[in-house]
Amino acid sequence: MTYADTSAHEIADLVRSGKTSALEILESHLERVKAVDGRPGVLEPGPITAEDKEKVHAFITLTAETARARAKEIDQLVADGEDPGPLAGVPFTAKDIYTVKGVPSTAASKILSNYRAPYTATAVQRVIDAGGVLLGKVSLDEFTYGSSSESAAFKPAPRNPWDTSKVTGGSSGGSAAAVAVGAGALSLGTDTGGSIRHPASFCGTVGLKPTYGRVSRYGLIAFGSSLDCPGPLARNVTDAALLLQTMAGPDRHDNTAATVPVPNYLAELEKGVKGMRIGLSPDFFRVTYFDAETGELQERAIPEEIEAAIHSVAGYLAQQGADIVTDVPMPHTKYGIPTYFVISRVEASSNLLRFDGVKYGYRTQQSLADLREMYRHTRGEGFGEQPKLRILMGIYVSAAQFQKQYYQLALRARALMRQDFETIFDPAGDYKLDALLTPTVPSTAFPIGGVYGDTVLMQYSDQFTVTTNHAGIPGLSVPAGFDENNLPIGAQLLGPDFSEGRLLRIACAYERVTADEPWRAKRPPVVEKFG
Ligand code: GLN
Questions:
Q1: CB atoms within 10 A of CB 259
Q2: Which residues pair with 493 in a beta bridge?
Q3: For a substitution probing ligand 1, which of 148, 192, 223 has the most ligand atoms within 8 Å of its CB?
Q4: Which of 102, 171, 333, 483 could cross-link to 195 by cystine, CB 3.0-4.6 Å?
């Protein structure tokens, strides 16, 4: 009997009622990690072997011993008649962009490879306080910069559990892969332009980017401070609701954390979709590229299978009593990526200034003449390609002589994207939508090495997720079947500020009505083979 496939809410029930020990549950998960994950990512991996290519490599740091100690504590609480909390004994992982006291917090970058944080991120601490058992820190694109997790400086980089020759998506690729294979029932990811929803879509898991400020950013290694959102990944909607419930809420360590009361998300799940107005927009069924040579906009249709999957979701929701509203205009969606290129790079270049080898992290080993040289060599050796590219671009587009044509223009475009959403969700407006239903990503998982190296093409994979971050609203990705190559397809639900409960409720209605579909019974081949 393994508990590695048991959902988080079931695990918590088993542990709280004393039916199963947290330690037994943890051992099941550690066995699963051993069977399917292969070696964890390291800075100097040597050659990537044929065996490496069959495994998942979600982890950078496995914290098996502290997890065992924590599981025993939980079991003691139960033995003493105390309640360890709503996540009692639930094994979970955290993307290695969250700080955890005493544990390496690397951002998958050489420059933080030796960094052990003196404090724990609020969101992680809340999960631990609710009875969660941290299994370890999982991989990501370096500093979260990417949509495939291939830019992690720690190799082997994560591989997709549904086909290990494909990417996990990113940047929370380790989180999505870990959850998909049962290496923890839950994972904490972060989403700046799509990084929770994108890998959730590629790996067939649920992923939720909350409203900006719904979850504290304290203890996140920052990327784009006006865009970053911590959020949950899970194998089902109920578990995602449970994790968000634990993570969300005000925090005295983060003044941008919202003070809006946190609703009871689990209670929301039961309410169904009858009478809800759910929109479909043609602007989310095509991708728009700027041709670098001509400067012209070019449009391309998305794969038919993805379009069909989203229409099938709409069909099920209609069957459950929702009104589907078609032809909803979202005219500024096409500016999402160019705008993100500017704003996210400006914020990244600013946030990366603190990594200079002085107080913490990697420092060059070279003997140097002065402080400036120390900075230069430390940053030159410590940062990979993506951070360097983003620093250069961020400095360029915010320079005094260019900022009007780039940064300030991007801020104006961002306001227009927010306006698109305000218009369609306005209860007194023409559309009065409760939510917008879209594909999460314009493709399924692409081959390892297939897009990597082309930063622009990689970025365009976020076309349907990124406007959510510009607008600050919540977005949820839910599994919606498979393509002909047995790769997961994700459906995305978007709603107004603080509508997480409503999005979870819609996703849950869809999950329940499709519970008996044959595709729901599929398991990742890597689990079938080694698990
Ligand atoms: N893929 C996007 C990027 O490269 C988004 C990453 C994220 O959400 N952290 O920046």
A1: 8
A2: 437, 476
A3: 192
A4: 171
Known catalytic residue at 171: yes
Instruction: Give 302-326 pLDDT, tens digit per residue.
Output: 999 999 999 999 999 999 999 999 9
Cα 75 to Cα 23: distance, rounded to the nearest angstrom? 7
Integer Cα distance of 229 and 232 in angstroms:
10
User: What are the pocket residues of ligand 1 if the criterion is a CB atom closer than 6 Å to any ligand atom?
Assistant: 144-147, 171, 191-195, 223, 344, 459, 462
Instruction: Please report the pLDDT score of residue 455 as a whole number.
Output: 86
Report how far Cα 341 is from the mean position of its chain's Cα atoms.
19
Cβ–Cβ < 8 Å for 145, 386: yes
Domains of the chain, first to last:
3-270+477-485+497-530 (3.90.1300.10)
Distance CA 504, CA 238 (A): 8
Contact 108, 153 (CB under 8 A): yes
pTM of the model: 0.98
Q: Which of 141, 142, 227, 228 to mutate to test the pocket of ligand 1 (most atoms within 8 A of CB)?
A: 141
- Distance (angstroms) between ligand 1 centre and the Cα of 58 equals 18
CA distances from 423 to 221, 245, 413 (A): 34, 28, 15
Q: What is the pLDDT of residues 442-468, one digit of tens each?
A: 999 999 999 998 888 888 899 999 999
Nearest-angstrom CA–CA distance, 469 and 414: 9
Atom of ligand 1 nearest to the CA of 191: 8
Q: Which of 143, 110, 56, 150 is nearest to 452 (CA)?
A: 150
Rg, the chain, Cα only: 22
Marked catalytic residue, from 113, 148, 171, 175: 171
